[in-house]
Amino acid sequence: MHDDIKEILFPEEQIQARLAELGAQIAADYRGDHLVLMALLKGGVVFISDLMRQIPIKLDIDFIQPSSYGDETNSSGVVDIKMFPKIDFTGKRLLVLDDILDTGRTLKRVKGILEEKGATDIRTCVLLDKKARRVVEIEADYVGFHVDDFFVVGYGLDYADHYRNLPYIGVLNEACYSSAEETAGP
Ligand code: IMP
Ligand code: MG
Asked: Residue 45 to residues 31, 106, 167, 168: CA-CA distances in angstroms?
């Protein structure tokens, strides 16, 4: 698996150091409030696992699973919700976590749906912000790192559902795209 990575953009230590900073900032901003960290499945799983341990205040965690119908590297713009959390939003402050903000369609849609369901205090936190690719208007309230327009994998981010378990974030060798597509079944 490691052989498939052309270049490491964010090593494990750099990610963990940044999460400690983000966690301290979030703890200061939400101290005394009922914070719910809500991660998008599946990409936000590694991020929420590490980030929550850097936020030393009482909090809940929850998950929401959007599905977007694109190819392996581009979202189509149509976003449905596959799994919605059973949650009473009264008195709760939501911080929605995702691995990466790309075109922005997914996070904007998820935010809209949570608002429709009654959430009034929603902020967003992404590990990576790929600003150059944005097509809808949305900015995250907390950003781990800015990244140029590369397709990246690792630390929750996938290509064809693989590579999420890499402890760092990197760029795939070009050869891996074609070989994965050739072997992908219906
Ligand atoms: P958006 O709706 O275009 O902002 O897409 C967001 C989703 O696309 C993220 O939750 C990721 O699952 C996926 N995505 C976008 N860019 C990348 C990338 O560079 N690597 C892996 N997944 C990505
Ligand atoms: Mg994905």
From this structure: 23, 16, 13, 14
Nearest atom of ligand 1 to the alpha carbon of 98: 10
CA distance 25 to 29: 6
Ligand 1 pocket member 99 (CB < 6 A): yes
CA distances (Å), origin 139, targets 30, 51, 100, 146, 168 = 19, 20, 11, 12, 24
The domain limits of the chain are: 12-147
pLDDT tens readout for residues 122-155: 999 999 999 999 999 999 999 999 999 999 999 9
Q: Is residue 43 in contact with ligand 1, taking CB distance under 6 Å?
A: yes
Say yes or no: CB of residue 108 within 6 Å of ligand 1: no
CATH architecture of the domain covering 12-147: 3-Layer(aba) Sandwich (3.40)
Out of 29, 102, 148, 158, the active site residue is 102
CA of 102 to the centre of ligand 1 (A): 5
Decide if 88 is catalytic: no
Mean of pLDDT over the chain: 92
